[in-house]
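User: Um, any thoughts?
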Amino acid sequence: MIQRTTNMAIISLRLDSFHYSIFLLIIIFSSSQLAKADNTTQNFHYFCNPNNVTGTYTANSIYQTNLKSLLSTLTSNTQINYGFYNFSNGENTNKVNAIGLCRGDVKTNECLSCLNGSSNNLTQLCPNQKEAIGWYEDEKCMLRYSDRSIFRLMEIGPAYYANNMVNATDLNDFNQVVRDLLDNLTSRAASGDSRLKYAVARARGPNDQSIYGLVQCTPDLSESDCNSCLVQSIDRIPIDCCKDKKGGRVVRPSCNMRFETDFLFYDPTAPPPPPPSTTTTNTSSPGNSNTTTVVIAVVVPVVAVVVLIFICICLRVRKPRKKFKIQEGEEDEDVEIEISESLQFTFDTIRDATDDFAASNKLGQGGFGTVYKGRLPNGQEIGVKRLSRDSGQGDLEFKNEVVLVAKLQHRNLVRLLGFCIEGRERLLVYEFVQNKSLDYFLFDQTKRTQLNWNRRYKIIVGTARGILYLHEDSRLRIIHRDLKASNILLDEEMNPKIADFGMARLFDVDQTQENTNRIVGTYGYMAPEYAMHGQFSVKSDVFSFGVLILEIISGHKNSGIRHGTSTEYLLSFVWRNWRDGSPTNVIDPTLNNDSVNEIMRCIHIGLLCVQENAASRPTMASIVLMLNSHSLTLSRPSEPAFYVDSGAGDFQDMMQSLESSSVQESVNEASITEPYPR
């Protein structure tokens, strides 16, 4: 029986446990993803362009050459003996990333053979597709490749589910045993190291049945991400996988789990992965047996004592995670934060990746420090933020960013790969984003021409989706507090990625507002209730987003538009033209007038976001709906905050009034800190 569960071809299969070797697998793809399987691929589960985010490559192109070379290297690498392969090849749009993972009980030669078969099948069944994934021979191995970054990223789709057709008995007891077994295995696998996150075990079920379980994650995942992926898989059992069945499996790109009753489907004798290779010298030689006996008699007790002491020390000091205590400024609010050690890089690794922080690898500099481009030993490009020792952003912002961003996964958020704390060094390691930040293009007279309206609209929509994820859709509810053009990074296709979470704050799910004695952010983007009274909420992020929309449309910085010797605040300029019926004066002259209606709608949305009354501003969910549905009627905006009606010359007076409190502004428009609110 086959059941299609999603539009991504997630399949549910029910199979007799005694006939797993004889079955016909039918995979349903959409017309754009369909590839016919021949007799050699009947036990091969695959998806072509599974996430509909990548395109195709042409025959004999540089991308195809890089892909062939990468797959050949991956499937012939005998130096790796723990079944996990992650490599990259190429540069920029021709860069290919690949992951190969074998089941924990599969021997090295069998693993490489399985990956080689998967490589042949994927390139045959997904011709010219830049992204593909496949599982071969009952998940003995998984191979995936893509032109986007896929390392250290938890991905739960596409997936497929399979289950035994035979019903279990004593269902309450049976289901509880299965759940307990898989939960226990999840904890064991998640705590594995960077070579293997795999666990198997047998449990005794009702009527003395043997229930076998297996779980595994790609070892590049953090402990928390591995645990999350497996928990989500186990949660599918009573829904659409294998409720009340004697066996079943859930298979995803980042993890898989399986259980069977009276059917041992894995090799229980498989040894654990060998330790990292070291050079050893064989010093044994035939000799006097009495000498050997004396050596053993002396050495063994000494070693035993040393090992015992070492174990005691480890038990005393060992912690699965590092804990940092963060104090929130004047509020004396202690927050104990746990950071997975799997995210930590050594300083030497980052120094080597950046060529000792060479000037040629420098990408930019702000009040926080310097950003460098680097390359890890596996070929992955990274961006490294190195906090300066005299930066206004200290351990608080650093640890805050590590904790929050490590738990966020969205295509419009820059992805944190890890961090380094060593001596006085504080470094953050991110995915490398090719096209720098939005302000690099938007506020440059020449580079601005590269941002046509389609690109600007894509940046507006993508940024809105990223903020919506932070506010409502992520596991955490986060207020960014420092949204601005310099914190919107652009990838090689000019897709926006929100960055810099050093100032972000975590909210409870049902929390709507909070007060702070520590005002952080950048004037011009800060909502009035926050800048003046320290009150922040999701609506303060909405205000910043509205300013950003108006900057994108006008090409002007919010810090002011010059009229001869005077300067007018951006919101005053936009509102004055909107009120006087001349909103086209706001539009950047380099934009094509073919999209005037859409641009005017975005100006309208921007003005709704920057209204003085926070309650009148729309939520991000409403904004995303407004951007996606042009037929939706928009309400009439009221006068924006910080609007100066008496003329452009009052701009400086207004800014001086805002900054009359004790404020120290950081370099290059980076975030500022105000110790006391007005």
Remarks:
- The chain has 16 helices and 29 strands.
- The first strand starts at residue 2 and ends at 4.
- The domain at 324-431 is CATH 3.30.200.20 (Phosphorylase Kinase; domain 1).
- The two ends are 67 Å apart (CA to CA).
